[in-house]
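Entry for the shared binder. Reason: the reviewer on the internal report wants the predicted structure included alongside the sequence.
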Amino acid sequence: MYRSSPRHFVVLPLYFAWRRYLRLAAIAIAIFTFWIRWGSAPMLAAESINPPLDSPPNLNSSLACTYDQRRFHRNTGIGKFYQRREIAKVIGHQDLFWLERPSREGEERPDILLNLLDIAPDATIADIGAGTGFLTFRLLDRLDENGRILAIDVEPESQDIIDFIARDRGETRVKTSLSTPSDPQLPENSIDLAIMLDAYHEFEFPCEMMQHIKAALKPGGRVVLVEYRRENPLIPIKTLHKMTERQARQEMAAAGLDWLETREDLPSQHVIIFERHPDR
C-alpha cells in the first residue's frame, strides 16, 4: 500500500499554489497590457495634451481645449479627462431628492458661504449649474431690487423647476437661461460674479465653459468654485464629485483667471475664489 511521506503534504500544495499564482500573474499582466494598449486613447489630439503639473499653462496653444477619452474609467465618470482629471457624470433633475435633501443645509452651510462672498446688493450673479435652485434663491437674500440672478443649467427640466419656484414666490429677479455643454450663453462683460456650487467637476467641456465665463465677467469680476475636498478621503462623497484645490487652481489658471484666495470655513468644501484681471 502506498503511503504519502510527510513532505507530500508540504511540497504538493506549494507546487499547485505556485502554478495558480503564476496563472494569476499572467492574467494580471495581460489585463494591464490590454489597458495600456486600448484603455486610453486621445479624443481630440494625436498625443498627450497634459503638461507637467508644475509647468505654466500655455494659453495660446491649439491644444489648450483638448481632452483625453478613455475606454476604461470609473463608473461615476464619463471617461473624458481634462488636465488629468476625469469629468464626473452629471447629477441632474432626476436626483431632485438628493439635491434638495433636508441634511444639505447642515452639511454644506450655504449661510456661511454667502457671508464669505461679500456680495454687492446690486450685483448680477450667474449661478452656473444651478440645478434645482438650492443656491439660487439663497443668493437673492443678499441682493436689493437692483440685483439679479441668472440661473444657468444644461437641463431644461431644472430650469422648469426654478421658473416654477420663482413664479410661486412672485420673484422677478431670477432669470433662467439654458446653457449648452460648452457655452453658458452669457453676454460679454455682463456679470459681477459667477459661482459654481458642486458643479464645475461635471462640466463636459470645462475649458470652453471657463473661457466663455471669463468673457462674461466684468473687469474685476470673480469666479467662485465650491467643491468637496478631494484631499480628504473621509468626506463621504464619490471621488469624482470632489476636487483638490491644486487641480482647481491649475484649471482656472489655464482659463486665464487669477487666484485670489481659498477659504476653508465650510465643513467639507473648498471655497476657491478667482478674479478676472482688470487688464485682461
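Summary line for the report: The two ends are 93 Å apart (CA to CA).
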